[in-house]
């Protein structure tokens, strides 16, 4: 948990992305398609980072990863409250179907 650019609570998720396609990929486009984060049944929206996290978020949003290369990235979403659990959902990129596996996160 961090504060976003507006000082509101936000969840920062760091990840390592490997581009297994034949094309350059922008990590933000992949995460926007393949990861969904919900709290209290509602999808959380991306927000802006501040301070030390600005560079990694900006690079994730605009950088391109060449085929076969890795990238350390991050995503940030605004949290509606700091008491409710957050759940991450993941999509199988090959089938475009949501996986049955989720990742619940307790904020406290």
Describe this structure in words.
With 108 residues, the chain is of the alpha+beta class. The protein has one domain: Immunoglobulin-like (Sandwich), CATH 2.60.40.1240. Helices cover 16% and strands 41% of the residues. The strands form two sheets. It has a four-stranded antiparallel beta sheet. A three-stranded antiparallel beta sheet has the order 1-2-5. A hairpin with a 2-residue loop joins strand 3 (35-39) and strand 4. The longest helix has 9 residues, at 54-62.
Number of H/I helices: 2
Question: Level of helix content?
Answer: 10-25%
Distance between the termini: 9 Å
**Order of the strands making up the biggest sheet:** 4-3-6-7
CATH class: Mainly Beta
CATH architecture: Sandwich
Topology, number of strands: 7
Q: Provide the β-strand percentage band.
A: 35-45%
User: Which descriptor suits the 3D outline?
Assistant: flat
Number of domains: 1
Rg computed from alpha carbons, rounded to a whole number of angstroms: 14 Å
User: In the CATH scheme, what's the topology name?
Assistant: Immunoglobulin-like
